[in-house]
Amino acid sequence: MRARFDPSRLGRWSWALISLVLILLFDLIFTPKFFSVELRDGHYFGSLIDILNRGAPVMLIALGMTLVIATGGVDLSVGATMAIVGSIAAQVVTKSHPSVVVVLLVCLGIALLLGTWNGILVAVFKIQPIVATLILMVSGRGIAQLITDGQIISFGDKALSFIGSGYLFRVPFSITLVLVMLGLTALLTRRTAIGLFIESVGDNATASRYAGIDVRTVQLFVYAFCGFCAGVAGLVATTNMRAADANNTGLNLELDAILAVVIGGTLLTGGRFQLVGSILGALVIQALTTTILTKGVPIEYTLVVKALTVLAVCLLQSAKFRGKFRFKARVA
Amino acid sequence: MILAASLKFKGFFSPDVFINLLRDNAFLGVATVGMTFVILTGGIDLSVGGMIGFTSILIASLMTKHHLHPVVAIGIALAIGSGLGTSMGYVISVFELPPFLVTLAGMFLTRGLALIISPETLSIDHPWYEKISGIKLALPSVFLIVIAIGLYIAHFRPFGRAVYAIGGSENSASLMGLQVGRTKLRVYALSGFCSALAGVLYTFYMSSGDANAARGLELDAIAAVVIGGTLLSGGVGTLVGTLFGVLILGVIQTAITFQGTLSSWWTKIVIGFLLLVFILLQKAFLLRSRRDHRA
Predict the structure, then answer these.
(1) Residue ranges of the domains in chain B?
(2) With 70 as the cut, is the pLDDT of residue B97 above it?
(3) Least C-beta-crowded within 10 Å: which of A112, A261, B99, B235?
(4) Is B233 exposed, middle or buried (0-12, 13-18, 19+ CB in 10 A)?
(5) Residue B57 near chain A (CB below 8 Å)
(6) Which residues of chain B neighbour A318 with C-beta distances below 8 Å?
(7) Which CATH class is domain A44-325?
């Protein structure tokens, strides 16, 4: 059988790229002003910038989530971690007035701790990832609300707010942050052995252990890192609104992140992971949402469209599905 | 485990409270029956909550906007629910997409459809409904009947045995000659039906339909199933355990409300903590029994 057009040869993330291109093409044709980028108040404005900006938290979480999923696990608590970190940031900044560095250290430190908590549950107590992270997901919201006492806390600290609402090189800082995190993660996983270990553990944990890989440490690492990413995302999201909303920050974002990772070509069962793919996947989801909103379609339809898109991309990625069509072509 | 829960009682132990417990958790309970079968095969169904919201708002709108008789509305809802479950099962079994993803998409789909039907709650005003909601034992009975039927299917029908076999080892099951694909399809169809039924019960419980109902319920269902002793990897677990799981969750919720002093966010923290305790206890029991078996 001749090899037909199989984008997967480019890389597992090629389907995500194709989807993204298709969505943007659709926008180009049907929404004339979509691609216009204007210079206003010294920075760029436009739908494209909007997508990148709003998608920043998901992209950040997706980075950490990619590594967790690559080990065959999942982290449902990222949304809750975002809320906790945001709440702490808001409270610290309004109650006392430490420097931004201190706030950052405290918040990211706590994020790391939460991630490590998940890691301990999974690696040491061998609890299944869905259940283990579920615990933090449920109680985390409660903790976040406890910290803010149920109120929405707004803050005006300029330095801190820069993270989510500031501009660098005329483009929202959050975008730069995502690129930096992507670069860091890529460096970390591709230039050191840890990336290989992660893929190995995800592929076959038992074999990895026999090969001498410390499965426990790898697992601890990925969950801690995921927590860290969630912390950064939480800071971005909270400082974007300049308010901490313990109830709504990061709500359902964990699902979007998982979707992004899957669209990006990383298998849920673990193994090889695609960092760029996950970022593209997150962009696909965000582009979809923005396209829908721009066309004036009521927001309720977003969910249906998201569902159908994910199904479509997954089906396309599934060799079995493609196989069905090849067979039909041969018969015809 | 049930003993531990009972020990927390104090002035708790009245038939009224027990009936209320069954009544309040009836729709969750019915949904967990379907979920148990799915998890027993090693899969998962995240669309449960969305399905409840969808069926509830569908029934409500069919009755209020289209003036259909409740029986017709319920029938349509159950049919559509089972249909959706079957489609998910089809994609999972034929195209071998991961259940997590497919049912996640299912969750989005059902929520979205529900919100499209109506973003606001629709209350149901039908003499039938008022009569049935009035009967205190109505919901609990349905719940118990469904569990009984589920138990029968699980332990006395080939389908049930196939489910356990697949959960134990899919490869072995297919080598044994069991129709793995068809069974998998049926568990998701069953789960779809159970979630739809749960949605129906929800409408009786709340006398209204709400597209946003049962948000996060799928996680409660999974928690109940896990607490009840079913392994997420499949093959091990019973519906009796799930029943206890549901009751324990219900007890925790009631205990917290009884306390009255804890604010709503403390509730979440306590639930998370208790979940952890139960799971660790479970692990401890398993380890001990495994050690005994080896000795």
Answers:
(1) 26-215+230-237
(2) yes
(3) A112
(4) exposed
(5) no
(6) 95-97
(7) mainly alpha
